[in-house]
């Protein structure tokens, strides 16, 4: 017995003879965006709320399998298509958040993802529920997909996540995000037996900079250095503001030799900014960098990698600043 048939007490004598026809008509009027596919994947209902959400009129889609183009720029299955094709396993590849059979109803699927919505003004984050309808012999006759527009909620969640993980001044990852990422990368390095490198980057003579140009000038300087650092990173690297005028760079799968090359590139990049620091002996803003690399092991902690890079940074400062230092140098 499918869920549509359960509404039969609401029907009068004439509609009771065609309960599915009645229910499908009812769906047309629902304020929840809803579409229904038949067992061959053709659109048999595209309700008005769905028209409003997608900007695609029902007349264009009824009887066709072109409903994907209301949501996506490239052809791909909707949740309802996955149910019809029995390809529910693909939900993991195609959707962000998913919960199979959330209410214990056979084959009902829920999932969320960003949709391009080519016929509207911009992409939307939609939550979809797809429920199959079976006839009395247990054969699939249709799949109902209902949609909820969660764009505002998702954007608020992303903004909150940004606030929780970004440094307010520079826009780089904050210390909390650094700690979290370092631990995650350490565990990954442990699983894959890959090296993990870390750079600690500290602005030289920054007290003099603040004294000469004021705290607001100092803030601007930190922002410029942050941009320079970020421009040197690859996709899997993470650059974070570690605290004050100190930055940290996590370099996954990077040997000490590779880390030294990145460190020297960063040092040169900051030097090339030619940012005057009239209070400092070098007359320009420079950075000192300590590098460290570990092959992660259960005996060690990521904090030891930080301590080793910090010790190298201390040596770079001690040796005269505007230089990089590796463990043991
Ligand atoms: N403008 C600004 N200054 C900051 C910020 N965070 C830390 N500082 C300043 O950075 C300076 C760091 O000074 P020190 O720790 O003495 O280091 P330094 O002068 O850079 O000297 P070395 O590191 O030894 O080269 C202090 O004056 C802090 O007030 C910030 O967010 N904005």
Automatic annotation (TrEMBL):
InterPro entries: Diguanylate_Cyclase, GGDEF_dom, Nucleotide_cyclase, PAS, PAS-assoc_C, PAS-like_dom_sf, PAS_fold, Rev_trsase/Diguanyl_cyclase. One of its GO terms (cellular component) is plasma membrane. Its EC number is 2.7.7.65. Residues 194-329 form the GGDEF domain. Residues 25-65 form the PAS domain. GO terms for molecular function: diguanylate cyclase activity. Pfam families: GGDEF, PAS. It catalyses: 2 GTP = 3',3'-c-di-GMP + 2 diphosphate. Residues 109-162 form the PAC domain. GO terms for biological process: cell adhesion involved in single-species biofilm formation; negative regulation of bacterial-type flagellum-dependent cell motility; regulation of DNA-templated transcription. NCBIfam families: GGDEF. This is diguanylate cyclase.
């Amino acid at each position: 017995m499918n869920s549509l048939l359960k509404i039969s007490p609401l029907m009068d004598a004439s509609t009771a003879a065609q309960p599915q026809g009645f229910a499908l008509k009812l769906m047309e009027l629902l304020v929840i965006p809803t579409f229904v596919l038949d067992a061959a994947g053709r659109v048999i209902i595209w309700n008005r709320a769905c028209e409003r959400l997608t900007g695609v009129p029902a007349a264009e889609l009824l009887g066709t399998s072109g409903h994907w183009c209301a949501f996506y720029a490239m052809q791909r299955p909707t949740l309802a298509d996955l149910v019809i094709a029995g390809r529910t396993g693909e939900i993991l590849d195609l959707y962000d958040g998913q919960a199979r059979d959330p209410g214990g109803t056979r084959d009902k699927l829920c999932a969320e993802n960003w949709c391009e919505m080519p016929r509207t003004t911009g992409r939307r984050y939609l939550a979809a529920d797809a429920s199959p309808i079976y006839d009395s012999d247990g054969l699939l006759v249709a799949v109902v997909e209902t949609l909820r527009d969660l764009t505002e909620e998702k954007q608020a969640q992303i903004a909150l996540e940004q606030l929780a993980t970004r440094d307010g001044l520079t826009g780089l990852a904050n210390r909390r995000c650094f700690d979290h990422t370092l631990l995650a990368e350490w565990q990954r390095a442990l699983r894959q037996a890959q090296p993990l490198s870390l750079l600690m980057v500290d602005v030289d003579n920054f007290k003099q900079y603040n004294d000469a140009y004021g705290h607001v000038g100092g803030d601007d300087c930190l922002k410029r250095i942050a941009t320079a650092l970020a421009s040197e990173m690859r996709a899997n690297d993470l650059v974070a503001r570690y605290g004050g005028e100190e930055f940290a760079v996590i370099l996954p799968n990077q040997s000490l030799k590779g880390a030294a090359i990145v460190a020297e590139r960063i040092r040169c990049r900051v030097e090339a900014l030619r940012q005057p620091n009239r209070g400092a002996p070098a007359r320009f803003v420079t950075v000192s960098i300590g590098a460290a690399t570990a092959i992660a092991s259960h005996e060690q902690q990521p904090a030891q990698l930080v301590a080793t890079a910090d010790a190298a940074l201390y040596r770079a400062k001690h040796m005269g600043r505007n230089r990089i230092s590796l463990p043991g140098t």
